[in-house]
Amino acid sequence: MTAATHSTLFPQVPESPDAVLEGLDPEQREVATALSGPVCVLAGAGTGKTRAITHRIAYGVRAGILQPTTVLAVTFTNRAAGEMRGRLRQLGATGVQARTFHSAALRQLQYFWPKAVGGELPRLVERKVQLVAEAAARCGIKLDRNELRDATSEIEWAKVTQTVPGDYPAAVAKTQRDAPRDPAELSQIYAMYEQLKRDRSVIDFEDVLLLTVGILQDRHDIADHVRSQYQHFVVDEYQDVSPLQQRLLDLWLGDRDTLCVVGDASQTIYSFTGATPDHLLNFRTRHPNATMVKLVRDYRSTPQVVHLANGLLSQARGKAAEHRLELVSQRDKGPAPAYTEYTDEPAEAEGTARRIRELIAAGVPAGEIAVLYRVNSQSEVYEQALADAGVPYQLRGAERFFERAEVREAGMALRGAARAGGNDSLLDQAEGLPSEVRAVLSTKGWTSRPPAGSGAVRDRWESLAALVRLAEDFERAKPGATLSDLVAELDERAAAQHAPTVQGVTLASLHSAKGLEWDAVFLVGLTEGMMPITYAKTDEQVEEERRLLYVGVTRARLHLTLSWALSRSPGGRGGRRATRFLNGLRPGSVALGTRGGTGGGGGIDRGSGTGAGAGGSGPDAAVRRKRGGPVRCRVCGRTLTEAGEMKLMRCEDCPSDMDEALYERLRDWRAGQAKVIGQPAFCVFTDKTLMAIAEAVPATEGELVTIAGVGNRKLTSFGADVLAICAGEAMGEEAGEGEGEA
């Protein structure tokens, strides 16, 4: 499900530091070799950011520049940390710590608590919901299950933003946060929750960070100890850092700048938990001498998928949108995204299951297919539809692979068989490692054919089948490997949480799909009220929903299907509408009132600025070009996906035959027109459009209107002037003023 899926499962460790750099593109190599000072990597979806930073660490370690035990790589999920540890092990960089913020802080807290406070660290409460319920009851406030969940989330948000109970109402007002109930009541619950924890000598996950910050702030000797241990820091998914996590990172660093951060503001989807992209977007402000690297070569998705992803962000607004990255697909062309409208949700689920069966029959593995939805409650109808269709599936969000009971039992059985060697009667008829593993696991429920239906029996079988496939891959990679060798490999993978792939269609929420990828992705339930979700009220909340859909789109490598249902149940009134985010992108739709970020020249190449449908750029134009086939460079023939390149009809680095003098005359004319109409210059024509005109030198209206960025409205307003300038005619200061006002 990750980029590593299509690489060798058991690669050879690179023989030298230089060998670590082999296969990296120029930008990734720049990341890998930038080992001093602050480094900020802006990495778009599918651009190989994990590859770049793990090779950076491995290159530094293998070259003797970084001592492995002094490197701390921090990310946000145990899965991502496990994958990072697995990749570092494959690159020969053992000894590097790759952990989540909470895991790293908890280790330090456990070690230093006796010295800093005395006694044992208080017990950690893994689920705070019950304590929040008791706190609400003591305050005389009754909460149902959903309200209890919301109150718990609010307490978590307050703590990661370092807001104490008494300041919570003011913080809500200041941030314009949409509190789930009266902030004064939530403040009461929050204060009582904290009191209950103190009375019972327990702490929660947020306390782990808060207490670590407190100790490092107050005890300079302990802070110095930590800083002598960790001297180089790498932070993945930096757009998701909360103020509290940033404070901890600052304390780890001290006055040093040996920091590398990686992130993408367009994938900020956790602001409701206190995450903010501001630390990423302001990195150069805090570190003026930072090395900045942009990764935009998308190795994951086809040009068709990338084109849709870029189109989604081209309509975005706000600060994050001003820093969006235009992805450029490095893959061969594939099928266009499919858009499907259904009468009701069961029909949508059945249609999705039917299409999945067709893909599996065509050779796409079930483990390379995902169904992604906005909220977990949407999964039930798809579970039923896939079970009815006889398609295996797995739900994301279950316990970690190596912590499953059947996997632990299988590990013990394999370890026992390895110790027994030839004395185990189970292995008498087995020849070769995979055959031995099948024989051992057959005693734990594995069979050559999967059980019918779904449920716990099927989940258990899928786990065991994943171990069988891992043994087959291991034997192919290491001919002659023994059962003991496989047990050692499993132990190392368990320590790194580097799980094998379970073969089954993945059902997951869009949030939990972050960081994963599949050959085929089905984005379902894309209706107004679900995408964006109904409680997304503010502009920023709506923009976060757009980014969430962008994350979903960029999970697909090859096949992408987007669908919605007009009603919830059969026979219902079909009053639903497809999400507004697809307006102007899906066939037959029109983009209404959308525009890009306000950055203008800040990497965003927009058209008129008065609505995407007004001119020749924006989503409508993208749809028109798409229907006519992919846009190709007129110089080298490469498929173009970046908006600016499509305006020029050539790659940025391909030779240009632009008439420089004509371009400067057009720029001077544009400045005058912008002053006349009282709008920014790019509202007349963007730089890219002027460059395209100066390259094409159109002689007629028909030639001019075919240039991207010149639509009928702009042809009417400015066409005569532009054609006159292209013909070499002199333009007076007052020329075209009437057309400009029109």
From TrEMBL:
Necessary cofactors: Mg(2+)
UniProt protein name: ATP-dependent DNA helicase UvrD2
The molecular function terms in GO held by this entry are:
3'-5' DNA helicase activity; ATP binding; DNA binding; hydrolase activity
Q: Which family does it belong to?
A: Belongs to the helicase family. UvrD subfamily.
EC number(s): the record gives 5.6.2.4
Q: Which Gene3D superfamilies match?
A: 1.10.10.160, HRDC domain (1.10.150.80), P-loop containing nucleotide triphosphate hydrolases (3.40.50.300)
Species source reads Streptomyces finlayi
Q: Which residues are in the UvrD-like helicase ATP-binding domain? A: 22-302
